[in-house]
């Protein structure tokens, strides 16, 4: 029997609109349909972009205090309805209700920070008389919004990662069109609802639901879009860069995050941090701990404690406060993770725990003795799987960490400042956490990676830099 649902509307240029064609939104836990959203057409996206041209003018003309007020009111609305937001995140995605509640709180903070950063979009004076013959010139530069931003967002943080694009865009006076992940569009629509209640002028924000194959290229290639902000997989990111043309691109892509644990580390803290960092959101997290390099002298103790703690994690109903790990976003993804683990085991890897799939659920898994030629050793797993490696010292750990083609974040556990500093200097990553796992982030810090992990930086202040352009002003004074 098919569940009857009312169906959501999408937010086109500030108006809520239905479409006859729809997309089913299903709970990955039991594949139950929980809602539908419009399947936007190419013509919808083209119309949206035309409205956004006007929206960009409206946004740029908004004084800073109005931008701040709107963003704060949107945050207030989410705070007043945070149970609804958390429940939506949990039902449409992979997160447990506890994880969803934390994402909702982070979204509120992301918006609050965006509002505050709106007042700090500043320029500098320029001493033109540094060049001989320019004694009669004075001036400065200031930053202006770039216009229309196209945002393509992923399923794994369906509210806060949308806020990380929308908040800075509005704070800096831009219009923005969001194309959320097809499997998790409801949270993005709830963010639009918050901004509508916050009094955001129409045409400044759109959340257009639909299939990427139909509306994605229109958004990416249209000359009126001055920036594409994308969070997702490497292959999709590379395709967007090829198609985008002469516009800004911000890419937050994949990772294969390493953590180093040295013999002087606090073992209990290292285990707790890395287990949490590995299995948050069922491992579907770009910062997720994937590779752990442990100094040989403590390997047996670390392995025993890590496996014991992993086995204590409860896999089950996302809406239960007792659950630690929910399902992957689809059964297809769980099958993909299962095949990666099976390939590694077939090639000689040792399975210490886990390795079991039940529909979209995959048990938290630990492997060691992983062959270098196995796919799982080189690529992003994006699932609840951890690889343990024994190393002789910090130098070997750093060298091994750098061998993959990703470089988002890393962690190192040590009480030795010299060894920590060596890792800071030599590890090819966008961020390194000392005595913490790779899975640590606050929403105000610069966030992004090197190599195949991306281009540019998010984090509100740094996103605003990407979403604005400097304009030089020079006065030639009469004698």
From TrEMBL:
It catalyses: (2S)-3-sulfolactaldehyde + NAD(+) + H2O = (2S)-3-sulfolactate + NADH + 2 H(+). GO terms for molecular function: lactaldehyde dehydrogenase (NAD+) activity. CDD domains: ALDH_y4uC. It comes from the Bacteria. The keyword Hydrolase does not apply. Pfam families: Aldedh. It is an enzyme of class 1 (oxidoreductase). Its EC number is 1.2.1.97. Coiled coil: none annotated. The keyword tRNA processing does not apply. Residues 16-473 form the Aldehyde dehydrogenase domain. Keywords: Oxidoreductase. Belongs to the aldehyde dehydrogenase family. Part of the sulfo-TAL (or sulfo-SFT) pathway, a D-sulfoquinovose degradation pathway that produces sulfolactate (SL). Catalyzes the oxidation of 3-sulfolactaldehyde (SLA) to sulfolactate (SL). This is 3-sulfolactaldehyde dehydrogenase. It comes from Fictibacillus marinisediminis.
């Amino acid at each position: 029997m098919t569940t009857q649902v009312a169906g959501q509307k999408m937010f086109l240029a500030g108006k809520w609109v239905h479409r006859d064609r729809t997309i089913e939104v299903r709970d990955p836990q039991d594949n139950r349909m929980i809602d539908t959203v419009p399947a936007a057409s190419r013509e919808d996206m083209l119309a949206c972009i035309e409205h956004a041209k006007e929206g960009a003018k409206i946004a740029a003309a908004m004084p800073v205090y109005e931008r701040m007020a709107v963003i704060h009111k949107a945050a207030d609305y989410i705070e007043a309805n945070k149970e609804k937001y958390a429940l939506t995140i949990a039902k449409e995605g992979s997160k447990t209700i506890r994880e969803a509640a934390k994402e909702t709180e982070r979204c509120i903070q992301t918006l609050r920070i965006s509002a505050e950063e709106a007042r700090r979009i500043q320029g500098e004076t320029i001493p033109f008389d540094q060049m001989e013959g320019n004694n009669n010139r004075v001036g400065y530069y200031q930053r202006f919004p770039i216009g229309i931003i196209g945002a393509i967002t992923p399923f794994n943080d369906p509210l806060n990662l949308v806020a990380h694009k929308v908040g800075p865009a509005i704070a800096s006076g831009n219009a923005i069109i969001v194309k959320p992940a097809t499997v998790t569009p409801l949270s993005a629509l709830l963010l639009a609802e918050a901004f509508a209640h916050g009094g955001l002028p129409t045409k400044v924000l759109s959340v257009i639901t639909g299939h990427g194959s139909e509306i994605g290229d229109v958004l990416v290639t249209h000359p009126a879009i001055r920036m594409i902000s994308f969070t997702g997989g490497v292959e999709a990111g590379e395709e967007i860069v090829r198609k985008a043309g002469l516009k800004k691109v911000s890419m937050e892509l994949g990772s294969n995050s390493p953590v180093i644990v040295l013999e002087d580390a606090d073992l209990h803290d290292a285990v707790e941090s890395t287990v949490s960092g590995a299995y948050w959101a069922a491992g579907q997290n770009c910062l997720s701990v994937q590779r752990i390099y442990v100094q040989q002298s403590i390997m047996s103790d670390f392995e025993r404690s890590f496996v014991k703690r992993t086995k204590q994690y409860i896999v089950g109903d996302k809406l239960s406060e007792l659950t630690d790990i929910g399902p992957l976003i689809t059964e297809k993804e769980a099958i993909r993770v299962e095949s990666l683990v099976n390939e590694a085991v077939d090639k000689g890897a040792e399975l210490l725990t886990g390795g079991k799939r039940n529909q979209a659920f995959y048990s938290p898994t630990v492997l060691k003795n992983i062959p270098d030629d196995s796919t799982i050793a080189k690529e992003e797993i994006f699932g609840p799987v951890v690889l343990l490696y024994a190393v002789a010292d910090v130098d070997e750990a750093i060298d091994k960490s750098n061998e993959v083609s990703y470089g988002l974040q890393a962690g190192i556990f040590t009480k030795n400042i010299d060894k920590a500093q060596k890792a800071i200097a030599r590890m090819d990553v966008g961020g390194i956490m000392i005595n913490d796992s790779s899975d640590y982030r606050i929403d105000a810090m610069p966030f992004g990676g090197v190599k195949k992990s991306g281009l540019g930086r998010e984090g509100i202040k740094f996103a605003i830099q990407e979403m604005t352009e400097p304009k030089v002003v020079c006065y030639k004074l009469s004698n």
